[in-house]
Amino acid sequence: MTSITLSVLAEHIGADIDCDGSAVVVGLNTLENANAQQVSFLANKKYKSQLADTNALAVIVSPKEAALISGRALIMDNPYLGYAKAAQLLDNSPVPASTIHPTAFVDDSAVIGANVHIGPNATVDAEVVIGDDSSIGAGSYVGVGSSLGKGVTIKPNVTLYHHVVLGHGVTVHSNTVIGSDGFGFANDKGCWEKIPQVGRVVIGDGTDIGASVTIDRGALDDTTIGKGAIIDNQVQIGHNCQIGDYTAIAGASGIAGSTKVGNYCIIGGAVSMNGHIEICDGVHITGNSMIAKSIDKPGVYSSGIPATDNREWRRGVNRYNQLGDLFKRVKSLEQHLNEPD
Which PANTHER family does the protein's record reference (predicted)? Predict the structure, then answer.
């Protein structure tokens, strides 16, 4: 297990320290559950009351909350960022050895960089290029002509179809499929005629893709994901979509084909987007929203209805169904009022 001193941790996360920094840190935990060798953090005011009783060795806090701590404090403006950097430093996830497992298949035409790990029963197909310091997890498949940059991490049981391009430092989690066919069919008198999908999927540097995500290849042009994007579990991205740099998409969201999402957007969980629309930079869409048309101004957008008491919800639905009749009555009254005496 990784262990460091408080002073080293404070320097790494960019925090001021108000105590002796020689104490040794062996891990991170919540305010409620941390022990005397673990560091915690306060990023949500909901848990402020736990500061008084925590057993943590030290707490990462903002300057405003530092006075509430009787013990050690690591003080910085963004405690949650401090927690993220501390977690990176203390991460004890297993690091695979830079070896190719005997049960892996690597085509003779593939180009494999230095310090690459290829796990048991993984397949690297023809003309694949894998950059230095990358890892291909057990049971994963990298399709013909795909190209992976340096420091790419492919977790177990990932499928990359042919001609998928991943930039440097991309992470793809288990059971994700990248480059599957988009939903392209032509209707011929009720029968569906398959349209081959000949574009690629191109993913920018540093993007993190969760588990069980599906990203369809382009029908003609490429499907593209920008650099530094984060995509949560069970997200569906249709063919020819373009997702901008540093955009975040939360779990169970679905984006229909040929939709463009700008840079620095935040898409909440279970959001649905129509195809062939454009979302400008800096848009935040809250969970369970249905986006049916383009958005050209940054800001927060919502359409999902929060849950409420069933009786109140039923009354609301009934009133909604009465809006058509109410509109007609108001229109009739306005016409009556506007009639000459």
Answer: UDP-3-O-ACYLGLUCOSAMINE N-ACYLTRANSFERASE, UDP-3-O-ACYLGLUCOSAMINE N-ACYLTRANSFERASE 1, MITOCHONDRIAL-RELATED
Cα–Cα distance, 57 to 125 (Å, whole number): 50
CB-based contact 76:92 (threshold 8 Å):
no
CA–CA separation, 145 vs 129, rounded Å?
7
Could you tell me which residues come within 8 angstroms of residue 8 by beta carbon, excluding any fewer than 6 positions away?
Answer: 21
Tell me the helix, strand and coil percentages in the chain, rounded to 5: 20, 30, 55
Start-end ranges of CATH 2.160.10.10 in the chain?
Answer: 105-301
pLDDT in tens, 286-340: 999 999 999 999 999 999 888 899 999 999 999 989 999 999 999 999 888 887 7
Note the pLDDT tens digit of each residue in 232-244: 999 999 999 999 9
User: Distance between CA atoms of 178 and 213, rounded to whole angstroms?
Assistant: 8
Distance of CA 22 to the CA centre of its chain: 37
Q: How many angstroms separate the most distant Cα atoms in the chain? A: 96
Phi first, then psi: give them for residue 97, nearest 5 degrees: -70, 150
Give the fold, CATH level 3, of 4-90: 3.40.1390
Looking at the chain, which residues constitute the CATH 3.40.1390.10 domain(s)?
Answer: 4-90
pLDDT tens for 119-135 read: 999 999 999 999 999 99
In DSSP notation, 224-290 reads EE-TT-EE-TT-EE-TT-EE-TT-EE-TT-EE-TT-EE-TT-EE-TT-EE-SS-EE-TTEEE-TT-E
Q: Report the relative pairing of strands 266-267 and 117-118 from DSSP bridges.
A: unpaired
Residue 147: other Cβ atoms inside 10 A? 20
CATH number (1.10.10.10, 3.40.50.10610, 2.160.10.10, 2.40.110.10) of 105-301 reads 2.160.10.10
List 163, 239, 276, 336, catalytic entry: 239
Residues 224 and 281: their CA atoms lie apart, in Å, by: 16
Give strand pairing partners of 299. Answer: 283
Amino acid at site 180: S
Residue 12 known to be catalytic = no
